[in-house]
Design brief:
It is built from 1 helix and 34 strands. By secondary structure, the protein is an all-beta fold. A hairpin with a 2-residue loop joins strand 24 and strand 25.
């Protein structure tokens, strides 16, 4: 049974909001560019600030042509966990070995490589001539490199003991990133999750807000924030020390200007029930909502108030970690993490108005994000298979065996499908 808790700003400010470390930028200095929602590029994790994983203007790859996709090229030796980013003719990847790599988006020719020596599991974000990445940690950092040369412009420590699992999001002059401390084994450290904003040009900290009260452990932010107007959304992890706190296992909205918590909606922890997937903003008949996968549950909340619209418990063994795609009035999941007993898990589609299951397919399991474009849903399996389904019917239109296992998610841009694997990057396109 779920136990939702809505806390207002006054209730949360005492225990959760930490004063900013610098004077926050006024909203007038925060022009929100939502052009990425309609961009043929894929410049960040989730494609856009809403985190939809949906390229709405892609036309070359569609339900009529996807069955003809062939491998165009691949680059081995750049194994990755995060999704690639495509911007202005270049594809950027951050690798498990700590390299940031820029390739020609059409040919795959190498443009530059910069080595950090630090494991990276997140996806790059590209904006204003810079490519931003985070490393896993401990003591994770956010890095900014020149997109043309790969030269380091700045790097800043995210927070003490931080692990940079989630990808950075660039909003005007700010780079926003959440952080976690790893997992329960970090309980020996005074760690708590937080969300922070850095000046995108200089790397200086603008604000930081912790998700749980001082002295508590947990509230980790594993995933990538979503942004709508003046609010930033995240989901949090469970408690590390067993001490109740309203910031654990919660969906939260923060002021983009100050980092103050605007609302928090806590859900029951059904046993390590972190919000591992990233939140997503999308319009419905009732207005804008933010949706979030809580492993074996899915919740949809009013984006402005945090009021719960609906929650569902997913079928047995549909324990989702990867972020769905939000498109065509539905929610598409890349499947579930594999189960020890081998019970079939599934790729599936939920109706956005009530969470009803519209279609599903058996899967061996996935930690990856789904992606949508041209009426097609792409879902990877961890064992190394990429599927393409008709978004409306769930009919499988195409699949391909990948050259390695995958935790990355697909990216569709300018008629090409980019897919990261444990061995490198493989790119599909239509025959010449």
């Amino acid at each position: 049974m779920r136990c939702p808790v809505i806390l207002g700003v006054s209730a949360l400010a005492i225990v959760l909001v930490v004063p900013a470390f610098a004077v926050p930028l006024p909203l007038s200095a925060l022009p929100l560019d939502y052009s990425s929602l309609y961009s043929p590029d894929w410049p960040m994790y989730g494609h856009d600030l809403w985190g939809t994983h949906f390229n709405s203007v892609e036309t070359a790859v569609n339900e009529s042509t996807v069955g003809s996709l062939v491998e165009k090229w691949r680059v081995d030796g750049i194994g990755m966990y995060g999704t690639p980013a495509v911007s202005q003719g270049t594809v950027y990847v951050s690798t498990a070995a700590g390299d940031v790599v820029a390739l020609d988006a059409v040919s795959g020719a190498l443009k530059w490589t910069t080595h950090t020596g630090l494991t990276m599991t997140a996806s790059p974000a590209v904006a204003n001539g810079l490519v931003f990445v985070t490393n896993l940690g401990p003591d994770a950092r956010v890095w900014a490199f020149d997109t043309a040369t790969g030269t380091l412009v700045w790097s800043s420590v995210i927070d003490q003991y931080a692990a940079g699992w989630g990808s950075p999001v660039v909003v005007g002059p700010l780079v926003i990133v959440g952080q976690s401390g790893g997992d329960e084994e970090s309980g020996t450290q005074p760690h708590r999750g937080s969300l922070q904003a850095f000046n995108a040009a200089t790397g200086s900290l603008v604000w930081r807000t912790y998700t749980v009260a001082p002295g508590h452990l947990g509230g980790a932010v594993w995933s990538t924030p979503a942004v709508l107007n003046d609010l930033v959304y995240i989901g949090t992890g469970n408690s590390f020390d067993g001490v109740p706190d309203p910031g654990n296992t919660a969906m939260m909205a923060f002021s983009l200007e100050t980092g103050a918590i605007v609302w928090s909606h806590q859900f029951e922890d059904f046993g390590d029930e972190d919000f591992g997937a990233s939140p997503q903003v999308f319009p419905t008949q009732a207005g804008f909502v933010v949706g979030e996968m809580q492993k074996s549950h899915y919740h949809e909340l009013d984006a402005a108030t945090g009021d719960l619209r609906w929650s569902i418990t997913l079928p047995v063994n549909w324990s989702v970690i990867g972020t769905p795609a939000a498109a065509y009035g539905a929610i598409y999941s890349a499947g579930s993490e594999a189960t020890p007993d081998g019970y079939p898990v599934g790729d599936f589609c939920l109706g956005v108005e009530d969470g009803s299951v519209l279609w599903s397919h058996p899967s061996t399991g996935s930690f990856s994000a789904a992606a949508a474009a041209g009426g097609v849903i792409f879902t990877p399996e961890t064992v190394g298979i990429l599927h393409a389904y008709d978004a409306a019917t769930g009919l499988e239109l195409w699949n391909s065996t990948l050259p390695g296992n995958t935790y990355s998610g697909p990216v569709i841009s300018h008629g090409l499908v980019y897919m990261g694997t444990s061995t490198g990057l493989v790119v599909y396109g239509l025959p010449s």
